[in-house]
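Notes continue from the previous slide.

Worked example: a multi-chain complex. Inputs as given:
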Amino acid sequence: MKYAAIIFMGLAMSVVTEFTESAEGPGAEYEIPQAPTHWLATGNKGGGSGPVTQEKLNASHTAKSSWLHYYGDYRGYRHSAIDNITPQTVGNLEFAWGMAAGTQGPFETSPVVYDGIMYVTTSYNRLIAVNPGSGEVIWRYDYQNPEDLRICCGPNNRGVAIGGDLVVMGTLDAKLLAFHRLTGALVWETVITPYQRGFSVTGAPLIANGRVYIGVGGGEYGIRGFFDAYDLATGERLWRHYTIPTDGEPGVETWAGESYRIGGSPTWNTGTYDPETDTIFWATGNPGPDWNGDDREGDNLYSDSLLAVDPETGELKWYFQFTPHDIWDYDGNTQIILLDVEVNGEMVKVVGHADRNGYYYLINRENGSYILAEPYVAEINWATIDETGRPVVRPGAIPTGTHTDRVCPGHAGGMNAAYTGAYNPNTGLYYVNSIESCEIIEKGMAIFIEGSTYLGGSFQSVDAEAGTGYGDLVAIDASSGEVAWRHREANGLLSGVVSTEGGVLFTGTVDGRFLALDAATGEVSWEKRVGSIVRGQPIVYEYEGDSYVAIATGGSNGVEFFTGGFSSMPDNTYLFVFRLGN
Amino acid sequence: MECLRKIRWSELLPAATPISPAAALISAAALLASCQVSSIHSEPSPVDVYKEDPVAVSRGGAIFRSVCSGYCHQTTPTTGDALFLFDCSWKHGGSDQEIFQTITTGVPDTRMIGFADNLPEGYADTWRIIAWLRTRSQCDDLNP
């Protein structure tokens, strides 16, 4: 057996291989081949379902055999229609197959499943297409990142988007790559922006109506944030929406001096599309520098905000800012869920959002008006929220001298946009993992160097250091914001959540367990030790009549100071898949 | 340049070993690199001066906590990819000059980006950071 290598000597410097029979016997002279980076599929792959149409993307919440979006559907629910995984049957889950990612760093992906193929991204931008029933590799691409990436928080990637016959992945050096979903052939490649200025892409793209939407990281590097729309067929950029206004634009007055030029407001987490209001919702991260706001006096629009934009033009329809003049690094870009709730006797289309600042919000998704904010974290002391939705900040939480007092939640949340929650329409509960670890924020010098960290201070994880931090899986009544129940773990939780129609939740823990909980009560119904920290986003799908649950595990970078996590556990990155036979 | 004059071609071309021009250049580069390191090592370190200046040490610490800590180098032991810098275990060299080199040029394939002379007061601030690191060393505590 040998690889028949086709070496492209151009800029891509990649090696594509196909599996063929060897003509050489033992002892034949050979040169050590360049390590392959791209394996194409051979033969007929997939189940013949045809391209991923917009109708399929719209109706993804009804399809048991696929998982098409980062959030499962455009509503952001991460709720599977599969109904045979119940608190009573979940104990029958069996290990089906596993796959090593082969890379280090947080394995945070949410796989996509369609037409008998699962698409898995790893840290450092490997993209692997596998059989969802067996794990057999169908095609694989190892992106070759440069050696001087600007990644504040790890070489993370959280998944692909699928549309038509293309699978699209963002890269740590701020590119978009589109592959044929069946063959793995690279169809187009687009540079979003020069990464050397502090940009990266870690989030999954969003696809709707022939457009690919993608945001960027860089809130810790003095970028001016934006998110883009690209033509799915060609990779051509259609529009760019800057998340900080410039000279002459409304909102620029909320930035002192010229601080708007380097004010952060990144867009690193995936947004969503609302077919009902024909709106792209995208939320933004922190202003920079993170922990010193002296040079950027003002509200710093549109950092830490929910943005509603026109899908065709990228023009702003309205916004709501969760944390004006953020000096705690409370990125406002956690998950968005689309709901219809009763407000004062009338049904209202709303966005539900558990912000990193510890409050769960309801915002009218037709006009951006504020409805409510209720705390979902167990301890919160940085601010209360007034009747307009604006925080009233406690003076001790402001680093007027060198540091704050103990501020809750800590800078990582609450919920963090690096992972997902899930909403079950039957219980009306929104399930989010929360880090309960308060901190002292130290204000430092605001030193801007293009392409370098622009933090303006640091934090002291006092709870984590004292061993008093913990984590909660919180069940929030999505209509009222009241907390229905909490499942408590010894350490902050950094994994996503998935929900099933059968009333089960799946999530993972920092100490290496994968859990199933009763969605009604929070009682743990089943658990398996997976051996490494869990930071992935679980998914549920059906394949050839059986039900499967998949979870990416491993990658403990930074866990101790975020959560006081489990540092003695060995670390490796693996995808685990469990099966429930029907 | 003082060091360059001491290099003999015989050092680059061992008599019994055929060597290509490319290999000779690599050897020369290696010799020059070692020459530069030994030359630098023989110079007094600016850190020795800054360590005795409380204002300089304080500024070094302030810059470290503003730029280097946060999401990277913690001041308490961690096991993440950003190294703990107070235990006297230096992965990329622990002399003042080697630390200076790491800060200014970075470490490829890690999150450590080189700062060149871009800190507000240029290389002087880099040396002040190193001076502060020295004063915060926990060698004696961690390696009694």
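Summary box: The radius of gyration of chain A is 23 Å. Residues 1-36 of chain A form one domain.
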